[in-house]
Prior knowledge:
mainly alpha
Amino acid sequence: MTQELHYFADPQLDRAVGLIMQLASENHIATQRIHALEMLLVRKGVLGSDELDLFVPEGEERERLDQVRDRAMERLLKVLTAAHPKIGNYPF
């Protein structure tokens, strides 16, 4: 069993820092992939350069995006509420 490391006297501060690091990591990865996908789609003529900015999801598309958001929030909240939060190591 791995011992949980503590960097601050207050364990809640450790959790907050863990949450910040998780958010920063996920944000960086997602942002890089989104930009790369958009560039590839524009390069291949699948999308115009402004189509993604003008996109408005409808029906099932909106539901799917909502589900993805909800699962992401659940993962992030686990960092704050779990006795021994697991940070990183996909899948969640």
